[in-house]
## 1
Amino acid sequence: MGKSRFHCLFFPLVRLTSSFRRCPLSKRSLIIAGICVVYLVFVASQVGHSKQHRGRRTGKDRYRQTHGLYNLETNDALPDPIVWQTAGSVVVPTRSNVVYITLKSKRRKPANIRGTIRPKLRRKVRKNLPANSVFTHNKLGTLEQDTGQNKHNFWRNGSWKKSRDGNYKALDITEKSHKYGETESHLSSIRIYSQRAPPWFSAQDVKAMRFLADAKVLRIREVSRGDSPSLLLFESESDVSPADQRHTQRNNVCEGQCGIINNPVDTAEVFAFHLDRVLGLNRTLPAVSRKFSFLHDGQPHPVVSWDASLYPEGLAAGFSTLRLTWGEYQSSLKQRCWHKNISPKPDSGCSSIHHYEWSKLALFDFLLQIHSRLDQSCCGFRPRREDVCVGPGHRAECGDQDRIQLANIVHRDHDPRHLVFNNNKGFFDRNEDNLDFRLLEGIKELPEEAVSVLKSRRLREKLLQSLFLDQTYWESQGGRQGIDKLIDVIERRAKFLLTYINAHGIKVITMNV
């Protein structure tokens, strides 16, 4: 039975092969070619079907991943609007669509950012006149012309006012809100897509960023502080906490919430704020980029939070600044002042600043190459002709370094142990062979939290997520491509810093003070 079935199946195949052999050579070639064509068509159809099926699956996975900026797990359906509590108030996400940031591979060639970060406008500022002073004078003068009224009319109707401790002029624009109103769009420029902001931002940071970016401007004030550069402030509705009311009443400058409008070229203030929060230092004031309709230059301006506690004796006296020479600073580093909360001896020469604060300042200033605090005479690097320290008398001080005064060492009135990193004008276009290592001189410890971020290779990822929140700043720097160039500079300096730590045996310790 089995043999008969085998013959039934095998006999047609034998006849077919024998007939194929008896065919002419041309017909046999034609048959083989036809079989090959059919086989190729079948294989191509199978490959196209598998690619289409895989594309559907990856598209669905990508949709699931990008449904939140910080990889929140959601269903395939669009989520309902999410409402949550932040600092006692209800906050609603400001976007319904999502843009997910993916990391690119490391570029092989160094980026040339000289044209993007240091515009020609900076070089046109005269050295003997502060840039901020020129900026505020010109801008407020433009406001006077735009309103069509002269200064005499403002004095008569009470719109211009004076302060006791610092002369300032205030222009009320409440009545002209239809022309100068800053709430032209209900869409916030602070983009937070998930239920909470990145973990390095506190609820107060988010609240301050939203205020600086979206608050309605009620009044513009030009504040003169004697020899110090003038300030251009904008004031919004009164929402001052009871703890800050005594500072507000003492200064009599900002009756509500205020922000300081800086020169458009000082965009490093915004980057410095995000870098400070990512590293866990928390020593800078919140800063965002914002365009103002009453400033007709069309450029985004860095806006920094106004903190009245930095002026305990009024604007005329300036910041609560610590006067310290380089020699006294180095001596305080050796004595480890206020370490372990031990009060220093009266004749030790210690300042009120805690020992760990200098380590945080040195790390922060080195990454951004801010020399205006610890090295305002530019003794640790080769300055350029447009730098302020090239002026007469500055470089001559480097011969006697111990007598050089530190500058811009600021602390709050009620918190003399901790520094406030103010006026953070960083330089991204300084070459690696000309870094200011003088900023790290005398430092024997560095904060563990900040160094761990630099070692973890997640600095780029965190900075991208952080800077993405500020849409105006993100777009003003050229989007992802421009932000990547800035982060490239910080990453290269971080490698130099880690090498310096290993070479000099610097300890990395926890600094919770």
## 2
Amino acid sequence: MAASSPQLIIDGVSRIFAARRVLSDVSLTVAPGDRIGLIGENGAGKSTLLGLAAGQSEPDAGSVTRPPRTALLRQEPEFSSDATVGRVLDAALAEVRAIEEEFDAAAVALADGSPASSARFSRALDDAERAEVWTAEARRATVVAALGLDGLERSRLVTDVSGGQRSRLALAAVLIGRPDALLLDEPSNHLDDAAVAFLEEHLRSWPGPVLFASHDRAFLDEVATGLVDLDPAAAAHTDGAVRRTRAHATGAVSEAQTTTVFGGSFTEYLDYKSAERDRWERRFADEQSELARLRRTADVTARTIAPGRGPRDNDRFIHKFKGANQDRAIARRVHNAEMRLAALEAEQVRKPPAWLEFAGIPSGSHGLTEGLLVHARSVRVGTRLALENFSIAADERLLVTGANGAGKSTLLGLLAGAIAADGGHVDRRRGLRVGVLEQDVRFARAEQSVRELYETTLGEARAAAVPLGELGLVAPRDLDRPVGVLSIGQQRRVALALVIARPPHLFLLDEPTNHLSLALATDLEAALGTYPGAVVIASHDRWLRRRWEGATLELRDGRPVIPVGL
């Protein structure tokens, strides 16, 4: 069992899964009041590191020291099959109630006047103040309302609520429990603007250590006091030197082993990382050029005694006296070149690893370049959606926004044909092919490899015409791994590949940046701008929304705030 500390200390932690090293010698200290954001490619080990920090698994090397009450929010919360909403919210206060009971008991024990009782009371008071036991009920009510859960019946089974509601319920339980340290995996997923604003304010005033992984670029800018990039490329240095402390104009960077902590904002980090990569690539190119020159010097000079012609008769006499000196000079040049070559080979920076770059959306959407794809008239879906006159054109670019429960996912389901209207008419273009990137990815056969899933879903001909590896969504090392062992972000990459490998006429994306790496989210947004068909996105992502150049539809209580298509 790890020792307790006010700080979260991760010391030289490594983790290996199925002979693949996910984390290597990671060291990090998160002090009270620090809010450190973990970033990196999907599969870089963010969720693994959070699980190790929480003590839910043990590292293969290294150690973790954590505060006494450390809570973890998973990307995909786990609840028992019989858990109800009320039971989860009550359980969230179980530790707080135990702390309050110990405080009451310690207060009674003070009557004996012993030093032990006094020490016990002091400890109980500290614990009670950290857990804020006297405001627990008010805190629960505030958190439940702020996360949009006050409308859920307490007797309702958690298995019967939506995936977004489950995630918000798990987040509520963590915040209500008021732990000493917070570990959060994609905490802003499924949160609307009001809920994100509440969470940001809550975390900025959190007294203990906070370590979180997030794809949400605006959230990182607002909350993080520091960033840790777990990508291998981020841990390397352009000068090939031993780890050191480096100052940056917008923040301090301190490094320990393979971990880099950046003290600026996420926006500043993007500029910093780009410049660092450029320096690394230039340094590598310069060193490779110098290595090539030294190898030529060592090889060619060693085989060259007198360049050009052979010696004349008159030269033979001179060479008798000068030849030995010339040979010694050449030998010295060769030796010096070999020494410099050996030193540079030992100290050279490694080649910058190739980025897993999204190659864009392939061609393949046939026809349907004009006219309407879908036209909905006087449509009702229960109390969730009401559209009087709504249409999607062949080249539509539409961003659907609104609070949780506003009807965004219902609208996408209606457009996809997965949800039937209770009234009205929905006309779809003949031959219309619709593709959906859903919020929650589920694969029926988790044991199937990524390559096999791709081929069976698309068919051999299409899979051969659009090779999965060329889409830039799945790393070569992951192609033959079972899809079920991939991270949630990697699985969503696979789901995205299955859609775009045969581009649909109408592409529907439900919270497309959820779980995706920051780099891929940016690339995907750019690619959608030139998509060869219609695009409809439902998203809370403020970064995406601020940069969106197409039409926007805001829903409120299932109805357009400003009707479109009239």
## 3
Amino acid sequence: MIKKLILFIIFITFLSFSAFNNFRELVLEKLEVHSKNFPEKVYVQTDKPYYTTGEDIWYTAYLVNGTTHKRSTKSRVIYVELINEIDSIILKKQLYTNDLSASGDFKIRKGLAPGNYMLRAYTNYMRNENPDYFFQKQIPIWNISKNDSLNFATTNTNKTLIKKTELTTTPEINFYPESGYLVNGITSKIGIKVKDKYHRDIIVKGNIKDSDDNIISKFETLKFGLALITLLPEANKTYYASIIVNNKELKYPLPKALPNGYNLNIVNYGNQIILKASSNNAIGLKNTFLVAHQRGALIYEKLETESTNSYSIKLKTNTLPDGVTNFTLFDNNGKPVCERLIYIDNPDNEVIVNLNIDKKNPKTRDKVSMKLGLKDKFGNNTSGNLSMSITDIDAIGHSTKNENIKTHLLLNSDLRGHIDNPGYFFEKENDPKRRYILDLLMMTHGWRRFTWNDILYNNSKKTNKFAPEKGIYITGHTNALKKDKQKISAATRLTFMGTSPYQEKKQSDKNGTFKYGPYVFNDTISTLIEARVKDFKSDEDRKNRFVSIYLNDNFYDSPEVTRNTVLKPNTSDSIKITNFIKQAERISKIDTEFEGSTRVLDEVIITAQLKSEADKRRDSLNSRTDYGHPTNRIDMKDFEDLESLTIFDLLSTLPGVSVANDSISIRNQGTPSIFLDGVRVQLDEITHITGADVEFIDVLKGNDAAFYSNSSNGVIAIYSRTGANIRSRNIKRKPGIIDFTAIGFYTAREFYAPDHINGFDEVLKRDIRTTLHWEPKIMLTDKSHDAEISFFTSDSRSNYAIKIEGITDTGVPIYHISTLEVD
């Protein structure tokens, strides 16, 4: 009998071990799958944190593997958008990258309404995740022509003051046991986070007391309202924090301790991590599984098979990448019971930026040359992509505490909640105080991007709706040329009409859908798409061409706008903002005076009477029409704030035009004839158009409409904006063929850099710039010499901040800031 009992216990133990070993294999397998199906991250460097109307936003977008931070092997296409305060996308660019980065720019119209705009960047593949994971950065824009006040800058920043202040109001205090829970009889660290209603960095001093009002320990908040205490909970006791506000005691209860449970205690020494796992359960830590990963990449695992109540491990960090690292302890049922974040900062990963300037103190209008290179800790050349901005410190400010590519990739993109001045943690190498505060930050922030439930149980069932894009796709569908316009499968042929024509054939599917691509081209290409009911060999049959072709415009299929994770610039320094706006006003005045002087010279030469600007504009628009003057016209130049509206919203603003349920009529006389750039189209062919695509809209009524045949219900003529970001434009449609202009990837404009030696206009015009120089793409290889950059200083004697951001080919983010003084 005893022998059978022993055999039974052995059998049960074997089954238990076998089952949990299977769980271990499941965890490791899912982590490996996650690493292969990695998410993507995007970061965007702009030349400045804020702007005025009439300026240009210069930017470089970086696209990386979200796990390794190396070049992504999935997407090649990056979307960058400028979004106004009512969540309308007013500007959008499609960029292509074959390495780590792509550059672009936005021209801010002079008539743009001031406000807090948002710059957003993402890939199509990133749309499979929550939009909160997109790169989102607040861009304040002032309109100096409308006397925009500084209230805009200060209203939104009073809530984020950095200056420490004594406590005068009731604060919010939260407690974070180190690995999730307090457990009776197990010593645990507790992170404390304090904030007031303005989210200020406030000083709080207090005591930790037990339920008998005995003082157990004291605490005092450090930077960012963080503090740490250690507590050994006892059974049948509770604990609270006691603080005094206005001579009154306020009590904040600590989380109640569990009678039985688990605990992870971690001490981060920089070069190594000491971890202690503990449990007061009957079987202790038996069959528990400890796993550590960094952004989903496994770095350590331990399956405990003994009935021990504690164990310790020592983990060296000299072979690990930098960043947030997650330690999770699973109990013997496969449930995560403890979780602890730490930040690994490995000195061996440090990359040094070598910037050599030929002139220590250049003069105004002086040519400056630089040499820029990267080296690792051992002095070897390092390859990567960089971008550089040089801005006036008096107007823009200079702080190493702000967000940058390093803080975004290694902190902001992997943690919950806003992080004030994240650059603070990277200002000094191997600083024990900053490491200590950063560890408190890890204790008081939860894991955001990575959740075990998604990884272990939902990952295998998840199907991605949005695929990575390698280039531009031209998609659409084919319909029968009948009244019912039924979608049909048809033979299609695409032809790019360039210096070297390219042609490709495809059969549209049973739903009439066709897809060509991916293609990589810039600017525009004249394009033909043809379709046949049968094939292209049967053209003697006239009915073989009875096919209509419709194009999709996926470019405007933008994801939902959210604002839960927006990086915000520091606009609390009203002196800097005042200097910035005053300098922008001076630049605007110089530009106006210079343009005025050139017009005076022109009038000396030209003796004929000049047309007014309104006359020129009217003649320019009329030159695009065959009928001359319309009955009514809406010129989008006069209504720039309507650019985000749909075509139906725009038409509803025209006198006499009624829009209801996507149907249009003029004076309720039936559906009018619709023309797009002179070509008659159907109503469903213009539904994708927005105000950003339109130059002007004409309405023709009565005798004016008689210019077109079969237009007794009137005519609506829409003319697209030259250079608008519409994926295809100037569509000319005939049975079985459409002729259009395909729009390629955006080619960034070249940053205007005055040449004070060879330039002509520069001699006559004063030169003051808040952005002295912008270098969007600096490519370095481990075998090449340093990159060389040159530019001219302006007329301003000032100090300038040189900000360099980028990433190495091995996935190490680069951030460097230094100064240049111009005498």
## 4
Amino acid sequence: MTKSTFIWIMGLVIIAHNLRAAPRAIDLRCELQTNPTDITIQEPRLGWKIVADERRVMQTAYRIIVSSSLDLLQEDVGDLWDSGKITSSNSTAVLYAGKDLSSRTGVFWKVKTFTNVGESDWSMPASWTMGLLHYKDWTGRWIGFDKYQQQDDEATGTLAARYLRKEFTVQKKVKQATAYIIGLGLYEWYLNGKKIGDQVLAPAPTDYTHNIKYNVFDVTQQLQEGKQALGVVLGNGRFYAMRQAKPYKVKTFGFPKLLFQLLLTYTDGSVEVIKTDDSWKGTTDGPIVANNEYDGEQYDARKELTGWTKIGYDDSRWQKAEYVQEPGGNYEAQRIGHMKVMQDLQPISVLKKGSGKYLLDFGQNFSGWVKMRVRGKRGQQVTLRFAESLTEDGNLFTTNLRDAKATDVYILHGEGEEIWEPRFTYHGFRYVEVEGYPGNAQKADFIGRFVYDDIETVGHFSSSNSVLNQIHKNAWWGIASNYKGMPVDCPQRNERQPWLGDRPMSAYGENFLFDNANFYAKWLEDIRLSQKEDGAIPDVAPAFWRYYSDNISWPGTYIMVADMLYQQTADARIVEKHYPAMKKWMHYMRVRYMDESGILTKDSYGDWCFPPATIEEGRGKIADKKYPSALISSAYYYYLLQRMVEFSVLTRNEQDSSEFVHLASQLKNNFNRKFYKGNGSYGANTLTDNLLPMRFGIVTENEKEKLAQRIAAIIEKENHGHLSTGVVGTQWIMRTLTDMGRADLAYRIASNKTYPSWGYMIENGATTIWELWNGNTAHPKMNSQNHVMMLGDLLIWYYENLAGIKSAQNGFQVVEMKPSFVEGLDHVDARYKGLYGEIVSSWKKIGNTLQWTISIPANSRANVFLPTNDVHTISEGGKQITKHDDMEVLGQEAGTVQVAIGSGTYHFIVTR
């Protein structure tokens, strides 16, 4: 039976299959999953997965052949690179080491692997194509209209969509046709009347003065003989800012514009480029009369430009496209997946309201839009308003959207059935109010379109506790809803910003649910490019809002996400690339904000959004209050120094390492002198103030037990089994309690249904994660119902501490499996697709026995901690483990027996 898995090639994903055989020839089949024409680095990371049913399968060597043609590859001629047989277990991070590759070069490769159980056949061929490596590879010029047009409203800053088109003739037989497009802010493009690609809201957003993402499409099959027609429609996106009234705060980049070229390679070897120039025609007098992420899209079907993307359209009344100023940023291939419509939802109810209105309920909070089917008279207007929840009288609750209108408008052209969905907006919603709909609206007339980045779900978790399961489900919907080419805070109100402070540990937990390594690698670039020359890093990156508040805990996410990516993928190049910028920021913060006592004094937010003591105490109160804390900034700086010690060693900056060690030692002493109260508590004796020195290892060894007792007392006695942490403390609470030996307390917090807890959100109707613990009663100014920041380290705890799936070495080549078999939880089933393959941990308690099924992928191994003091109480596959030849008992530790296993599936039974 063949098993399929996923392989990462520095921005590409490959599917590999591995069959067992004797003399154990292993068959690998590789297929590209994402667009192959988007690699712009000379040393891409190659990888493969080995799937085999045998136990303890380890790679001992490999051989890679890379060729310039498929024919050469099939003849085993590596004219670009033949690695030869390399003795190594590395199958996830092999750097291409062949000839330099030029723009548009097609590359074909295959791999043969050698294992301790035999040698494989050659894999099926895989390929990638180099993108445009140089600025001068772009031969076209930017076109558009760099001023307000008649259809725009300059007073309100409202722009109509820009429509651009060109016809041309192909007079020879085409061998290959490749299109390169940068449409800013957002684009859709058409060839001969058909939309190209299934991407939406493309390209991924960046700070366009620093870098710009281009997309690549193979359109060989879409060309026809003779005449051709190109059409591009441009929306605003993040390029033309959603709010023009605050230039001191909001960064804007200009009017929508286009750079495009179509490379035609003919069968006779000649090449032609169709590019953007002033031969293109354009208009703003089309059906999309307004578009904006915050406010929605207005579409007047009476103004449709029927046939404008096809050959022969009369564009004589259109304007000549203008040459416009380029945005300024470097052109880069987009290596993260496109945003797409990833799922369609049917409304669970359609309720007819008074005054000709209907209320749609989709039963789930998500981000995207509604596709509508309608019949009616010409000029009739249908208005769709979006919201996350309802008021007590059953109407839309929109106050928490602030001034985001979250409204789509469709004006009918009146000719039969009309089907419409917006192109250049999205909403965060569960409910939709439909006004002006002609006829009797039915469920089948509306489809909710769930939009997020094309990222695979790689994690699964279920347990015997329904609250834990629902929290996991809510987390998945919330995380996916906020993947928009960058990690945004929320999808509904007039914000939607990539706040660094929301993601320090959330990004880590998200990696257990989604294959988000490329996504967060892109975000690290956004952060690096937003850094000021003096070292300052903003709170929001890309810096669409000019917030450089110089705190530690928000910009420190830069270092923590890099650490997560290295831990989960073992890609050292992430750290190497960003190390100089991280070092500059660490120096910047120290020289500006360390006082004479050696304390880092600068903090902006404190433990942001900690819960009011009771639900009533917070009723109607605004959570947007800052409580700066020098304890938090100093503790975080100490923690980040520890990471920089590791990074300096990894990047061979030994002199830096010594300095970081020295600084950390001094800061630890200064911190304890300043903040330790001598009675087992720190600072203001809050839960967060005590958690941080415990988690970060700042507390001295002789005071550690007192501090642990104090933390437990706050939760058990003062909080009655609940947390009292905001966004800072929640990042660390679950793992800290578990490491203290109080996994029972962490489980109690996670399974609570009363305020404040994740379960309380569910009890009050949440289908995602709220921004505030008291989001149902807080002042509506800041109470998003679809946020991720309060997840903290919960998902990490699910997978690493409840399931026991934790990377111990080289991106899961060694897995530490040490679950907390907490009282009251009878079953956990978790799966995670890592770089080596799927890891499974499924345990259940039956009477006085523990049954634990474990699967470890080939070329990796695990250290398993079984909960018993007696090795003779453990069996696997009906056989006492000391009698197994394919596992090794390493010893006993704190009530557990540690066993080393290799790849394969194991069924352990522990009799207690």
